[in-house]
Specification:
The complex is a heterodimer of chains A (88) and B (683). Chain A is mostly helical. Chain A is built from two helices and two strands, in the order αββα. Chain A has a two-stranded antiparallel sheet. Chain A is elongated. Chain B is mostly helical and 683 residues long. Chain B is 75% helix and 1% strand. Chain B has helices at 6-36, 41-62, 68-73, 80-91, 94-107, 112-136, 141-149, 152-185, 189-239, 244-264, 266-287, 289-309, 314-325, 330-341, 362-383, 387-390, 399-435, 445-453, 480-488, 493-531, 537-560, 569-590, 596-617, 637-654, 660-670; strands spanning 458-460, 474-476. The longest helix of chain B is centred in the first third of the chain and has 51 residues, at 189-239. Classes of the chains: A mainly alpha (88), B mainly alpha (683).
Amino acid sequence: MQLTQKHQEYWQRNLRVTAILLTIWFVTTFVIGYFARDLDGINILGFPLPFYMGAQGSLVIYVLIIWYYARYMNKLDVEYGVHEGEED
Amino acid sequence: MSAITQSQFNANLKKYYSFYTGGFILFVIGLAILEYLGASNRTLGYLFLLATIGLYAGIGIMSRTADVAEYYVAGRRVPAFFNGMATGADWMSAASFIGMAGTLYAAGYDGLAFIMGWTGGYCLVALFLAPYLRKFGQFTIPDFLGARYGGNIPRTIGVIAAIICSFTYVVAQIYGVGLITSRFTGLEFGVGVFVGLAGILVCSFLGGMRAVTWTQVAQYIILIVAYMIPPVWLAAKQTGVPVPQIVYGYQLQKVSEREKQLNADPKEQEVRAIFKGRADAANAGLKNPEAAYADGKAAAEKRVADLKAASAPEADIKKAEAALATYKDVDTAKAQWAKDKGLAARAAPVRAHSEAFPGKDEKARDTARLNFLALVFCLMVGTAALPHILMRYYTTPSVKEARVSVFWSLFFIFLLYFTAPALAVLVKYEVYHNVVGTSFASLPGWVAAWAKVDPTLMSVTDVNGDGIVQLAEIVIGTDLVVLATPEIAGLPYVISGLVAAGGLAAALSTADGLLLTIANALSHDVYYKMIDPNASTKRRISIAKTLLLVVALTAAWVTSLKPGDILFLVGAAFSLAASGFFPALVCGVFWKRANKAGAILGMLAGLGVCMFYMYTRYPFFGVNDPLWYGINPISAGIFGIPAGFLGMIVGTLLTPAPESSIQELVDHVRYPNLEGDIDTRAA
């Protein structure tokens, strides 16, 4: 089975959104984590920023990353005609 | 069942679980009335245990099945929302439910590695695996390795890796079940293990994945309700706002101020100096045992004699005699010193709860940071490689639902992990403000009660003899934080029972998923795919059920030996899964060129490096080689994962590209729907 130009493009766009979201994930987790001691002075809702990110902020971002990916891909499926038919 | 459509099925599920949640709340209210009328704590404990296990068994019986697809993947019609709840229960173990808040209490910021690691891993599940595995649509994770890389070797390595990580994990769960059952009913630990096991088995044995899924949804509802009530109440009590997740920032500020005060307090310093003295004496004793033993014994004898001569109070003489009794012989004294050496930790000043990577100098702080980030990384990648979690995404009706389902999974997990750090701070506030500084004669009720029940969870001793509690005089076990919160918050015992039921639900649901993973790897991958591919449906199901029973009994037997030592391996399961599975699974989807030789080499290299590092560094094995870059053995995956990817790349590039049918398989999993597509769905 031969993939069309359109199929290739679908996969490229999937890779692109995956890479962008993965970068956000990486910065949230590891870059902020790495500089935790330096960011200690900043306050948010009474928390020091690094503690807030570890305990709440990054978790919210993770949930949003997954929510956005599901929404984006489910739309992309339809746009490129590779969505599944209604089963049952 | 097949007569109704998916949307009717969804509507029915919503109706059933709404009724169920309402029923459960009425049940708890009923018990609260019973307590008010004077029912004993033991009775309430039994009622909770019997009612919840009976309920799970009931769901198991209703969902019994002899259909292969129903047994292995719940018929692939679990809607995203419910699969999310089931994954949440599958994921959150006894350790998350009972231990997590305690770990955060003890470790402060550094404990957040678990919070981030065990949630952020779902980003990797969503982006790299769940939708593709769903499109592939078979039964187990080794199935994917077998089909993608061809041949039995990748499949076999997959089976072995799945069993290693799941088995250590399941033992820890059954341990938790035994502990909770025995604490709340007074049954013996061993009996508790088997009562819990009965609950697990009725469910998974009769209905496989189908029964486990619907029970896990029920268990999630119980565990989240049980987890939320105490912190909400405690937050309301302390601050007047019943939203612990928002208000605890301000409580954290108060805790931080109090930490500074306590560090400057002369009485605290006095207690710490006493501990330091004991630790120093122990170190000196261990250096030169014979001489220290003789000196110590002579001094102790002299003290007893002096006190008696001066006709000192009875209590003082008893104390001196007890001190003398530790000098029975050199070995007893040595054992005591080995224990006292640990008091050095209690001599240290209070560490700041919100401080990241504390350490005595810049180098120690950098090592702490490196370990923190490495642990987060290993837990995240491990999350995206644990077979019992990945398997859950085979059960959704479509790729689209699989994607949405990862969102619901993390959302439901998030609810608990979002609350755990708040709970830790609220309890710390309580201890620092309402326990420290009170007199021993008027300790808060919950302190005295727990100290009596289990001194490993809570103990206070008046070390400097001033009659006032100092922080350094308090020892708190990690499990206490969750278990005691209902009493700290002043809630009735029925809520303590509810918390225990929640812990039990967490342990049982995880154990269910793990046992099924192990038994399916054996029955489906080993028996059906490798030994007898012509086996009839009936035979496959009966083999699967028999193996489930065997695995469950083996796990319970291992647990009943109380192997406290193997519990530390649970953290190791993440590094192992990450090193063994992750590179092969991800390259299987994202790198068409990846082939069999690469997969074999990658999995073996990943597992090999990871196990080597653990074996030579965990104190348990007694080798104790120096650490690489100061990385703790729990994060061995930080070396194993790159080794896995490297093996994958080298093996692949040295051998020819996979045949075109494999490349077609890759295209197949990449697109939710392709015209003229191949079909990999399992029958």
